């Protein structure tokens, strides 16, 4: 079993030795990870209040804004599935490689250059879809599945040709008995997130985000070594 303090220490050291690239990659991963149609729709709907004084036009304007919001959401979702997820996968690959080398920011594009674009898109999409569907049932099953599938992006980052079923199965085995510990590791960064909020996100950009990404990449590397030892990957 991995040790949380050791993983965080190793992650801290790893990202600092390639600091600028790690900061930029983590920042872009954060942008791709927080893109959502819901926030766009909320902003559009809030803007509709400006016109509420004109009762004659409110129905037409509301319908127009709803149509615009729908188009924006679809564009954002398509961009996330076909571009954003590929770039995020490149970010996971960056932090894996960064443990033993000094990869450049261009590693973000490795998903597009791998020759397995469709497989990566499908695997990342299904991971998001399955997590979302489980979350619709109850919050707890969604959280459990999030941690069960936690290793999928790392697995596919190193093995872009791997069938999604195999990637999901390996992640499930890697996280067997470790989901609660991974959840606690996430919580251990809570203080850093609060400090980031105080600094208007600057601390997150220049320290916390790359620190978190590097630490979870260390978790993947530990689990991969354990998987080799236990014989369920070759």
What features would you describe in this structure?
Pfam families: DUF975 (PF06161). This is DUF975 family protein. The chain crosses the membrane at residues 61-83, 117-144, 190-209. Keywords: Membrane, Transmembrane, Transmembrane helix. By secondary structure, the protein is mostly helical. The protein has one domain (4-230). It has twelve helices and no strands. The longest helix is centred in the first third of the chain and has 43 residues, at 55-97. The protein is globular and about 65 Å long. Residues 35-53 have low confidence and may be disordered.
Question: What keywords describe this structure?
Answer:
234 residues, mainly alpha, transmembrane, membrane, DUF975 family protein
Question: What topology does this entry show?
Answer:
Blueprint: H1 4-16, H2 19-34, H3 37-47, H4 55-97, H5 110-113, H6 117-137, H7 139-148, H8 152-158, H9 164-174, H10 179-187, H11 190-198, H12 202-230
Helix pairs in contact: 1-12, 2-4, 2-12, 3-4, 4-6, 4-8, 6-7, 6-8, 6-9, 11-12
Keywords: Membrane, Transmembrane, Transmembrane helix
Pfam families: DUF975
InterPro entries: DUF975
What is shown here, in short?
With 234 residues, the chain is mainly alpha-helical. It contains twelve helices and no strands.
Task: Please report the distance between the alpha carbons of the first and last residues.
Answer: 20 Å
Give the count of structural domains: 1
Q: Work out the helicity level.
A: over 70%
In total, how many beta strands? Answer: 0
Runs in which pLDDT lies below 50 for 5 or more consecutive residues are 35-53
Percentage of β-strand residues: under 5%
Structural class: mainly alpha
């Amino acid at each position: 079993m991995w040790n949380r303090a050791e993983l965080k220490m190793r992650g801290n050291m790893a990202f600092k030795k390639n600091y600028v690239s790690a900061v930029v990659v983590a920042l872009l991963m954060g942008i791709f990870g927080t893109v959502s149609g819901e926030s766009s729709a909320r902003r559009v709907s809030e803007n509709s209040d400006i016109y509420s004084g004109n009762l004659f036009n409110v129905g037409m304007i509301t319908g127009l804004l709803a149509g615009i919001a729908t188009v924006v959401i679809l564009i954002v979702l398509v961009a996330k599935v076909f571009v954003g997820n590929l770039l995020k996968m490149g970010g996971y690959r960056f932090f894996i490689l960064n443990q033993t080398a000094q990869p450049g920011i261009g590693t973000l594009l490795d998903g597009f250059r791998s020759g397995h674009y469709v497989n990566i898109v499908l695997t990342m999409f299904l991971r998001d879809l399955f997590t979302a569907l489980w979350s619709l049932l109850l919050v707890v099953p969604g959280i459990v599945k999030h941690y069960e599938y936690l290793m999928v992006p790392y697995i596919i980052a190193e093995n872009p040709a791997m069938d999604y079923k195999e990637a999901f199965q390996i992640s499930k085995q890697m996280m067997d008995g470790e989901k609660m510990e991974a959840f606690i590791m996430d919580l251990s960064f809570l203080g850093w997130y609060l400090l980031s909020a105080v600094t208007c996100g600057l601390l997150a950009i220049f320290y916390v985000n790359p620190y978190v990404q590097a630490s979870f990449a260390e978790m993947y590397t530990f689990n991969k070594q354990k998987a080799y030892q236990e014989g369920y990957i070759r």
